[in-house]
UniProtKB/TrEMBL annotation:
Protein name: DNA-damage-inducible protein J
Family (UniProt): Belongs to the RelB/DinJ antitoxin family.
Keywords: Toxin-antitoxin system
InterPro entries documented for this protein: Arc_rbn_hlx_hlx, RelB/DinJ
Organism field: Aureibacillus halotolerans
Amino acid sequence: MAQKNVNIRMDEDLKKEAEALFSELGLNMSTAVNIFIRQALRQGGIPFEVSTHTDPFYQPENLKRLKESIEQLKKHDTVTKTSSELGLDDA
């Protein structure tokens, strides 16, 4: 099978992150892109959902709570409660 080069443009930081991830998986960028293309061809479309809906985890109010919790942990300003104190033993 003849090999052809394909050039794509992407943000430099995005490329570095992708290369690091693929390296952890034992892949290089070329192999990862080839896997994506093969899966798209097999499935007849993008091999994952593409949507304008955002994951509720990333809603601003949730991210604010997470940042506040992280700051509390950094300050060692946390409260320890047992599962029964939280009412989890009844679940």
